[in-house]
Amino acid sequence: MLIDSHAHIDSPRYADDRAAMLARAREAGVGAVLAIGIGDSPAQMHQALDLCRKFNGKPNLPRLYASAGVYPHNTPEIGDAVLARLDALLAEPETIACGEIGLDYYHEGAAHDVQRAGLVKQLEVAAAHKRPILIHCRDKGDGPGSAWNHLFLTLDTYWRHTGLGGVMHCFGAGWDEAKRALDMGFLVSFAGNVTYPKAQQLRDVASQMPLDGLLVETDAPWLAPEPNRGKRNEPAWVTETARVVAGLLGVEPEEIAATTTKNFARLFHLQADVGNW
User: pLDDT tens for residues 196-205?
Assistant: First the structure.
């Protein structure tokens, strides 16, 4: 059994076939999906939880878990009402994580200081509910002013002491960043872009990963792995990412499935049969 640790299944791109898409995932051996609750704005943070309650318990579908958070570009919208909504969502048992949250200096968006302030506020809410965090981090460069440097400074100050850890979602940096994340108790998650021909640096990182620090994901509907690159991604295709990562680590895909499922259950304090009904 595999777990897709990050998928935006509330995307309008699944509006016409969401149930069928989930059925394909279960048929492919995906036992659980973490549905990401950021929507297009903080007003849609609830949508992932809504889907959990709509589909969980139905036969031949993966089990769904939810997250809730404010994406870096939307941090200017964070105010008392948004934080209260996040607080309420993280109190729900199906909402097992806060995210995806973090810093994005790659795209033109919210000012960097606004992103950092918004991240800190969400870390405080997540800590109050003892929820691990799902980190988004993208950068244009490196050095003291980089997103990764600012991220680790923030986490060192406001998060490390909680011991709650989290996930470095759709990891796209180097081994130094991966090692810092692992040392802080984070899992490092690889998406379909690890399969792309030009992503050798990312594959080099994946090949060094300890098995107990690893997750796989789709980031669906984006980043479909080879050979489906360019198509709408879906949780069933996490199997291809797992296959490639297994090859990089010299193990069988079944071992990646078993280990990443165990890692997911450990991080989020779930039963070992996290994807079984």
Answer: 999 999 999 9
